[in-house]
Amino acid sequence: MKNNANHFWDWFINHKNKFKNLKDLNPKEQTYYLFWLDWHLQFYFRGMEYTLIFPKFKNQKVQLIITASGNKELLQKAIDLEKTAPKLRDWKFTAVIKPQQYIDDIKIAVEKP
């Protein structure tokens, strides 16, 4: 019998290209796929959240950050899910990021006036 982590990653692999090209989808399709991503993540473990980071250049990886949103009880579940992530050429999976790294990434992403 599959565990919830395997279920999540099997589902994700089947839809990874939709998420990779999410910005190119219309808003209705974006909402649809993000709903199901959240649904499958909650099926793995309720309370998990995620962030998708799209690269600036096509040859860079899309990043899926799985977070426990500061909940220490969920932190190990997020780490465990990351450890079971598939190795995909165009994706990077992260469970824990350093706060300063995240702030720097946000600063870079903000458009200058």
Report on this model:
This protein has one domain. It contains 4 helices and 3 strands, in the order H-H-E-E-H-E-H. Strands 1-2-3 form a 3-stranded mixed β-sheet. Helix 1 packs antiparallel against helix 2.
How would you concisely characterize the structure shown here?
This is DUF695 domain-containing protein. This protein is α+β, with helices and mostly antiparallel strands and 113 residues long.
- Number of domains as seen in the coordinates: 1
Q: What's the mean pLDDT score?
A: 85
Biggest sheet statistics? 3 strands, mixed
Strand order of the largest sheet: 1-2-3
Tally of DSSP β-strands: 3
Count of individual helical segments: 4
Low-confidence stretches: 107-113
- The level of helicity is 40-55%
Structural class: alpha+beta
Shape: globular
The succession of helices and strands, N to C, reads HHEEHEH
* Spatial separation of the terminal alpha carbons: 53 Å
Query: What portion of residues belong to β-strands?
Result: 5-15%
Radius of gyration in whole Å, from Cα? 14 Å
Protein name: DUF695 domain-containing protein
Organism: Flavobacterium silvisoli
Strands, helices and their partners?
Blueprint: H1 4-20, H2 27-44, E1 49-53, E2 62-67, H3 72-83, E3 91-94, H4 99-109
Parallel strand pairs: 2-3
Antiparallel strand pairs: 1-2
Helix pairs in contact: 1-2
